[in-house]
Amino acid sequence: MFRNLLSRLFTDRLDPSHLSGQDAEVAVASLLVRLARSDDHYGEVEQHRIDHVLARRRGLDAAEAAERRAAAEMIEAEAPDTVRFTRTIKERVELQDRQEIITAMWEIAYADGRRDAEEESLVRLVAGLLGVNDRDSALARQRALDELGLSDK
Fold this sequence. Notes:
There is one protein chain. It contains eight helices and no strands. By secondary structure, it is an all-alpha fold. It has a single domain, classed as TerB-like (Orthogonal Bundle), CATH 1.10.3680. Helix 2 packs across helix 4 (about 60-80). The protein is globular, with a radius of gyration of 14 Å. The N and C termini lie far apart (about 40 Å).
């Protein structure tokens, strides 16, 4: 199952119409997991925040969100580099939703209440790769801080 999804997500000759909505959401979830793992501290706080984001994005219940995250953890572990990974999302997800993905990424980056250079750097890289400009990324960061009840650090 996961091998088939990896193939659908990362085959260069893929027709975007073959990627289902659920496949695209697993790709987004995998990107969130990649971010959370980027500082080598992937704990419960980040896992719960990913579940919260996934539930909010598509109206999933807690069990469905956790299941999607678990699938994303397996996909992310075998996925190619971030550039190719984000290209897949950029080709298949509308700009407004990509901006929301950047907001979600900032939420994950700050879920543990700490600033981490690796996570911030990855969010900025991904924003550029997804075609989200610096201004929109900064606004997304502020929305994430507001969602988390944190001040701009």
